Amino acid sequence: MxxxxxxxxxxxxxxxxTAGTVLPWGLEQxxxxxxxxxGRTLRPTRIYSTPDGTITQTLLPDSVLKIKPWDxxxxxxxHGYVARRDVQPMxxxxxxxxxxxxxxxx
Length: 106
Fold this sequence. Notes:
It is rod-shaped and about 70 Å long. It has one helix at residues 6-27, and strands spanning 37-41, 45-48, 55-59, 64-69, 74-77, 81-83, 87-90. It has a 7-stranded antiparallel sheet with strand order 3-2-6-5-4-1-7, with no helix packed on it. By secondary structure, it is α+β, with helices and mostly antiparallel strands. It has a domain at 37-90: SH3 Domains (SH3 type barrels), CATH 2.30.30.40.
């Protein structure tokens, strides 16, 4: 570092300044909103009326439901309480629709 020229110093400081100001703006899209989260069930999942209550419903694997964190062991959904170990939280983005259907079928 003792042989750092003025030009090299300006290049390094310019890169550091740009990286610190430009990169965070693009990373905001990767952070999911905290108010609405969707979860996908990993296995047949039981929904309870309360965390210590009775089973009200059973969901099939790959069912999707809106969830909110309740505590370290449970999510709360519109149907009741779901164990965290049975649900995978997902970040939902707007899906791009195809402009036209592929015409591969003849």
